[in-house]
Design brief:
The chain has a 5-stranded mixed beta barrel with strand order 2-3-4-6-5. The protein is built from 3 helices and 7 strands; from the N terminus they run αβααββββββ. It is elongated. The longest helix is centred in the N-terminal third of the chain and has 30 residues, at 2-31. It has 2 domains: 1-36; 47-173, OB fold (Dihydrolipoamide Acetyltransferase, E2P). 25% of the residues lie in helices and 32% in strands. It is an alpha/beta fold and 174 residues long. The N and C termini lie far apart (69 Å).
Length: 174
């Protein structure tokens, strides 16, 4: 008899406790005190460094969402690559993207502009910093207006990889 009363009391106590916790949770959610905080510490004036790991994801995102990136500053490393119809101040800061397990690759990169590039031969490894702008080369594309350029050593890993299947636009990180 006493065991049943204790069991009933314990059951009612647990129900009241669960109800209180539920009410507190609902209040917290609807009162806004449980808000998700986004890291807004990256300012638009800061320079975003592109690495071999995020190179093609950023390249893809900038091409697909150019308006979101215009005016953003980036810095990255690659080699000088030119094609015959480039002007004297145009070049691609290129990387080789592996496309299959047989080490076949494609040249990928951003079209860049800088008057000093004439001092650098094709295949010279350089690091640039510049601002993303809208430009035109057979269609509207991002062009990096380079404000800083310097020669660097060829990195150990010169390859980049295709964009991830889990690719997420990254314009919000700038």
């Amino acid at each position: 008899m006493i065991g049943r009363k204790i069991l009933k009391f314990l059951f009612i106590f647990i129900l009241i406790l669960i109800s209180i916790l539920f009410c507190i949770s609902i209040y917290t959610i609807f009162s806004g005190s449980l808000k998700f905080k986004v890291n807004d510490e990256i300012k638009s004036s800061d320079v975003t460094n592109i690495s071999a790991d995020n190179y093609t994801n950023l390249l893809k995102s900038v091409h697909e969402n150019l308006d979101d990136y215009v005016g953003k500053k980036i810095s990255f490393t690659g080699y000088v690559y030119r094609v015959i119809d480039f002007s004297e101040d145009e070049f691609v800061l290129a990387r080789d993207m592996l496309i299959n397990s047989n080490s076949q690759s494609l040249i990928v990169g951003f079209l860049c502009k800088n008057k000093e590039i004439k001092n650098f031969e094709n295949n010279t490894w350089i690091e640039i910093s510049g601002t993303i702008e809208k430009g035109y080369y057979h269609s509207e594309i991002p062009i990096i207006n380079v404000y800083d350029i310097k020669r660097v050593e060829k990195p150990d890993n010169t390859f980049v990889y295709p964009p991830d299947d889990t690719y997420i636009p990254t314009s919000v990180i700038f």
